[in-house]
Structure prediction request, 397 residues.
Amino acid sequence: MTATINKERLLSDLFGQGKIGWHAGRGMQRAAYSEAYAEAREWFEGKMRAAGLKTRVDGVGNLFGRLEGRSRRTIMMGSHLDSVDNGGIYDGPLGVAAALEVIRSIEESGAAPEHSLEVGAFIGEEGEPLGGTFGSRAFAGLLPSGYRRETLDGFGVSEEAVTASKGNLANYAAFFELHIEQGPFLERRGLQIGVPFGIVGVTRLNITVKGEANHAGTTPMAERKDAMRAAAGFIHSWFEWMDGQKNMVCNVGVLEALPGHVSVVPGEVRFVLELRSVDDSLVKAAGVKALEMSKMLSPCSALVETLGAKPAVMLDERLVKMIKESADKAGFSAALMPSGASHDASPIAHVIPTGMIFVPSHNGVSHSKDEFTSEEDVLRGVELLKYVVCEADRRLG
Ligand SMILES: [Zn+2]
Prediction:
């Protein structure tokens, strides 16, 4: 099965959807369940129908478009249609537009694929308002019961609708997601394609440093139990330790001092230390290190609590190999790499063999109106996706 993608049509879809929810000077505003989101989904559904796909929207709002093959066994491609506040046009929709174009080009080639082919356009992949990879977790049946019930009630999504959104997982032979890299790895190395072998796990530690609130003018420096001084010391030592670590990144993005007055020595400082790695054992060891360091903050004390720990996800070895070999055959420069960001592929990889393709992000920028991937890079990614899907159709059961 060989098929040629229609470059003009693909780019016209990509840029066309990029106008829905776009605000000049700010970028994309297309949060899950917003009006712009609904409009984008309807727009894509229209494109799918025009291509002869059978469409359906499930209980949480994921959109699917399906082309029946000779078998019920299904190869799915896709990504998400929601964006962060002030986002770009590529993060998510690229993978949906690509999937649609791949199916259209296969149809037009006259080939009759063995597998049924499906586009999955997932909802709520971004962190807000539903905690990230919401639609794909619903599809994978991985949401705990009662998950974010109040918020979902607000969107008119019942518990039954969430449960009913679990896909017919046994029917799926593979899931492929084409996505922008969202980092500088590929561009810095002059590479055209990234082949993620795993997606980092994310662990968040809530650290509370306790001291004693007191007057910031009259309390002698040597007698203070200054929670900020202790927290700052901890954070400084932590980053020094991190400089010696490999294959793991960390961030302190939230910090709060209490009671929070300019003239009061903080009695308590809370911050969140986030750790990411594809190697869960590194994160675990870092957690032990944090606990150790938290005991050295005298005269203050500290409490370390785990807020959440999503384990790393390894992608399907066979599909990773298939993608890398296909890229090599196509003459694209490609390298295996970890994904530092979470994707719809993360939950889906738990239930369906999953592979991903990354294309370069200019300057490593994403979640910004300045997010950019060149047309050449976009087209290479979609070409490769098509090549891989044809290969998978031949080789997978
Ligand atoms: Zn994304």
Notes: The chain has a mean pLDDT of 96.
